[in-house]
Amino acid sequence: MKYFGLILTFLLAVATCKAYEEITCEENVPFTCGQIDRLNSSNFEKDFIFGVASSAYQACCTGRGLNVWDGFSHRYPNKAGPDHGNGDTTCDSYAYWENDIEVIDELSATGYRFSIAWSRIIPRGKRSRGVNQEGINYYHRLIDGLIEKGITPFVTLFHWDLPQVLQDDYEGFLDPQIIDDFRDYVDLCFKEFGDKVKNWITINQLYSVPTRGYGSGSDAPGRCSPMVDPTCYAGNSSTEPYIVAHNQLLAHATVVDLYRENYTHQGGKIGPVMITRWFLPYNDTDPDCIAATERSKEFFLGWFMGPLTNGTYPQSMIDTVGERLPSFNSNESKLVKGSYDFLGLNYYITQYAQPSPNHVDWDNHTAMMDSGATLTYRNASNHTIGPLFTEDKDDETKNTYYYPKGIYYVMDYFKTKYYDPLIYVTENGISTPGDETREEAMLDSKRIDYICSHLCFLSKVIKEKVVNVKGYFAWSLGDNYEFGKGFTVRFGLSYVDWNNVAHRDPKESGKWYQKFITAAITNPAKQVFLRSSLTSEKKEKFADA
Ligand SMILES: *[C@@H]1O[C@H](CO)[C@@H](O)[C@H](O)[C@H]1NC(C)=O
Ligand SMILES: *[C@@H]1O[C@H](CO)[C@@H](O)[C@H](O)[C@H]1NC(C)=O
Ligand SMILES: *[C@@H]1O[C@H](CO)[C@@H](O)[C@H](O)[C@H]1NC(C)=O
Ligand SMILES: *[C@@H]1O[C@H](CO)[C@@H](O)[C@H](O)[C@H]1NC(C)=O
Ligand SMILES: *[C@@H]1O[C@H](CO)[C@@H](O)[C@H](O)[C@H]1NC(C)=O
Ligand SMILES: *[C@@H]1O[C@H](CO)[C@@H](O)[C@H](O)[C@H]1NC(C)=O
Ligand SMILES: *[C@@H]1O[C@H](CO)[C@@H](O)[C@H](O)[C@H]1NC(C)=O
Ligand SMILES: *[C@@H]1O[C@H](CO)[C@@H](O)[C@H](O)[C@H]1NC(C)=O
Ligand SMILES: *[C@@H]1O[C@H](CO)[C@@H](O)[C@H](O)[C@H]1NC(C)=O
């Protein structure tokens, strides 16, 4: 019996240790992890960056040359959004950039990911056709303003808003001429801003422009096969996505090479942004579903990660896509392989994968069919993957659902499969309906649930799998134009009133994020001070104290 006490102590120690180490991240509805005392920034390492993100076309509007989203949204208003919304006006971050900085500071965010509009600094696409000094000055002011507040800029060089003139000249990324024009533009950015910007993102979501812009035709420039969508002005949905993706990779790698050869003295880091998803088998005991799940990872992630890590496309893609898949010559392969210091990973959703035939009916074939998988949010037992992500009020079968644990699997996958890269989560967020009242939109509990549950799994995977993640950027800073959705949805942690776009008011999610970030600050006076900056009323109280 004398050992009983010892055993009990041991058991208690194990239990306590486990309780301490394991953060409970709920996997089922409803999420209740929005409690700052349980989950806050102290669950991450000290210098972890908590930021917010935006992009140029979505946030503004004037002071620049036309880009392909201007062209696309005016040519196909219904594709730009059910409300025919576009980026002509939106939240006007060109005029109100100081308000943006103010609200980022109010949220206590330590990073801001924004994009430079190519056509704002080179309105006619090619550097030889002249630069716009006003546009350059604008970005200097913005960057200086952020640094002054201790906010680290993460600058995206290309967030889909190609100068329209380059689409007209040679169809943009469909032609390798894009590589030289992109290099000239990026060289100007390094030269102008590189002494202040230490985190460069080359291209946003390598997967998106090839598949949506040239496959389904649902994004700018709006190319696809006539049988896929007769309104597309031209295109070939089974071949062009691969060419565009290939040229994107070469353009990306070329500017990384430029940075490494000519700008190392600036001491920054550079990488691309991948849109990620996780995939689970539609039926987890069916070998065909399991195979479809693995193919989905290869065709969605490996398409870009194969070249970036090994200089080659995945063998499964080479086998399936055949001669429609371009190949890298030995110099290009060397250029692309290892062309990143970090990976920016955007994560929103996970889907179930099941096999589907890859139609060899070339008229209406798309590159997206080559993976031979159909993706859904319900599995073979009709189980929905998680809480509601987007609701279709007319057709329930079109609802989408989210899966916070997917971020855990994605991070672990990149670590184990792609040689433990330095990672920043460069986007993560959820939309709420644009037709909510201001009061409803401000309350915003759905966004808190989404963000905190993903942060919970992110913290868990960093601890359990030792993934090298150094930052997280919530999408988005404020409400803005959403690609393909117009103003029918809101993604912001701060509210923008479309009748008075100068204001950005933190929603409850923004206030939650602020508390989450500042909770790790151990000095209570500083905490009170930071919180008080949210309302002037509280600020006065603090001054009284
Ligand atoms: C932050 O979380 C930790 C545990 O993860 C907790 O000990 C601490 O009290 C929390 N901070 C605040 C201000 O609630
Ligand atoms: C670096 O700059 C020099 C001089 O402008 C230029 O010739 C060279 O091509 C640049 N390197 C790269 C990799 O672009
Ligand atoms: C569907 O998902 C649920 C929840 O994860 C699981 O219990 C069930 O086994 C899955 N069904 C199939 C057929 O894989
Ligand atoms: C899942 O797959 C297994 C093996 O193919 C099959 O026996 C089972 O009926 C499937 N379950 C469902 C719900 O379709
Ligand atoms: C990596 O590239 C080499 C050729 O350089 C090729 O033989 C090999 O199959 C590639 N590995 C993968 C996993 O694609
Ligand atoms: C590769 O680069 C070398 C040296 O720059 C050059 O001589 C050769 O022609 C290039 N090969 C190809 C296939 O472009
Ligand atoms: C797309 O290009 C391929 C290869 O050139 C061709 O076989 C196919 O018919 C084309 N599809 C359309 C819709 O033009
Ligand atoms: C187009 O694709 C669908 C499957 O996605 C197929 O059912 C249909 O027969 C194909 N052909 C035409 C001409 O629509
Ligand atoms: C799956 O569940 C939904 C809602 O729970 C229901 O409307 C639908 O009919 C179900 N589908 C099947 C195939 O059972």
Automatic annotation (TrEMBL):
Gene3D superfamilies (UniProt xref)? Glycosidases
Show the InterPro entries listed in the entry: GH (IPR017853), Glyco_hydro_1 (IPR001360), Glyco_hydro_1_AS (IPR018120)
Kindly state which reaction or reactions the protein catalyses.
a thioglucoside + H2O = a sugar + a thiol
The molecular function GO annotations come to: metal ion binding; thioglucosidase activity
Q: Which GO terms describe its cellular component?
A: vacuole
Subunit and interaction comment? Homodimer.
The record's section on PANTHER family has: GLYCOSYL HYDROLASE, MYROSINASE 1-RELATED
Protein's name in the database: thioglucosidase
